[in-house]
Amino acid sequence: MNKPLATMNTGKNSQSLLPTKTPRNVLILLCLLYLLLYIDRVNIGILAPLIRADLGLSNTQMGLVFSAFSIPYAFFQLFGGWLADRFGARLVLATCCVIAAISTVLTGLTGGFISLIAARIALGFGEGPAFPTATRAMSAWTPAEKWGFAQGITHSCARIGNALTPPLVAGILIFASWRTSFILLGSITFLWSLAWLFYFRDDPKTHKSISAGDLARLPKPAVKEKTKRKVPYLRLARHILPVTMVDFCYGWTLWLFLSWIPTFFFENYGLNLRDTALFSAGVLFAGVIGDTLGGILSDSILRRTGSLLIARRSVLVLGFSGAALFLIPVILIPDLTVSAICLSLAFFFAELIVAPIWAVPMDIAPRYAGSASGMMNFGFGLAGLVSPASFGYFVDLTGSWVMPFIGSILLLLIGAILAARLRPDRQFTG
User: Fold this and answer.
1) Among 63, 62, 36, 34, which residue's Cα sits nearest to residue 50?
2) Contact (CB, 8 A) for 419 and 317
């Protein structure tokens, strides 16, 4: 049982949300990582109308381009978690970002459908191990009672990346082409990898700036001891499978937002690229609030009740139900203002899910946080294989955006039911 987790470190220091000194700097670097990787991931969605016109692609082909990213991304969730637990986060994350940077640059140099697919697959190879590895780093550098907050703040930075991308890309397009935007953004990701190698250490005890007070607040045992432990994959997978299924339901709708919402505004309401960027940024910014609030709310319930079951389940069910509810008017009321407001609210509720669902693998299997998180996020990657391509296909087939939205609503409701059955309080001991 995880009851000690809820009651540990209840002194004055534990009441502060932010970690102190060196752990705080590590968390800031991880926040920047999530921001940059999501910029590299979603910039293609913002630029899709220009890319389609330049390369002569259909919605179905563009959907396949979106989904190509998830081919290696989904399966590297499993392998990436193993890499994190086996070799540590310093080298793995730096390598991930170098690959992501190169593939983003190559996207700007693409000459057609096949090369665009190849560049997106390469990006999936780079980003696939990144978040499980980041969770590995987070579990060693963040006090256990702050895991929900840490997941919330890092993923909120991912959503800041989402929200910044439309105006950022639109600004670059004033002075350069869509190809140049990929090259510039990929170069920034490369610079992050250098900063990570310089500052981060897998074992907090070996960091030259760590204080005794910081070390006292961090979880035990140290990362070095954990990475030597053999991971019991099959038994761990059985424990994580319910969380994977919930993550698939969440991921289906998130990929809808990340891949198709800009094109939805552009085509369904006939907006220009500037107005498309404005409306898309507004919708995606709502996720920033949801991500942050989801982590704070989950940790607050945990402190008040001492129950992981209540803390995680309640926020997850609320997120799934609220997102499903606010997607319904988008189908029923064909009005730009209504769609923008309801999509923003739907995305806000959907992002309440992120922090608690990423905290659950850490709750269930703290000794194997990297592998467990990777197994969980396999569901997200699998959704990314199916959702964007299905969305584009049905839009081309029916000439309407209704059917894909209906599919998202159904999966959100299924996610709420599955989330209500999760047992984060049952810890896997290996």
Assistant:
1) 62
2) yes
**pLDDT per residue as tens digits for the range 286-321:** 888 887 788 789 888 988 998 888 889 999 999 999
Q: How confident is the model at residue 9 (pLDDT cuts 50, 70, 90)?
A: very low
Neighbours of 87 (CB within 10 A): 16
Tokens, residue 184: 């510039």
Residue recorded with tokens 């250098």:
194
Q: Count of CB atoms within 10 A of residue 337's CB? A: 9
- Residue 345 token pair: 């609210």
Q: Tell me, what amino acid is at 99? A: I
> What value, to the nearest 5°, has the Cα angle with vertex 30 and ends 28 and 31?
60
Q: What mean pLDDT is predicted for residues 66-83?
A: 79
Tell me the backbone φ, ψ of residue 23, rounded to 5 degrees: -55, -35
Here the tokens at position 15 are: 């009441």
CA atoms within 13 A on the CB side of 414: 17
* pLDDT tens digits along 201-211: 888 888 887 87
7 Cα distance to chain centroid: 28
Close Cβ partners of 397 (under 8 Å, ≥ 6 residues apart): none
* Average of per-residue pLDDT values in the chain: 84
Name the residue ranges covered by the structural domains of the chain.
20-222+231-419
Structure confidence by residue, pLDDT tens digits, 344-383: 999 999 999 988 898 888 888 888 877 788 788 888 888 9
CA 106 to chain centre: 23
Peptide bond into 19 cis (omega under 30): no
Which runs of consecutive H residues, i.e. helices, occur in 56-146? 59-68, 70-87, 89-108, 113-127, 130-141
Cα end-to-end distance, the chain, whole Å: 14
> How far is Cα 382 from Cα 389, in angstroms, rounded to an integer?
12
- The sign of the torsion formed by the CA atoms of 143, 148, 153, 159 equals positive
- Structure confidence at residue 19 (pLDDT): 54
Q: HSE-up of 130 (CA within 13 Å, CB side)?
A: 34
Residue whose entry in the numeric block shows the structure tokens 């590299």: 40
- Cα 60 from Cα 272, distance rounded (Å): 22
pTM of the model: 0.74
CATH number of 20-222+231-419: 1.20.1250.20
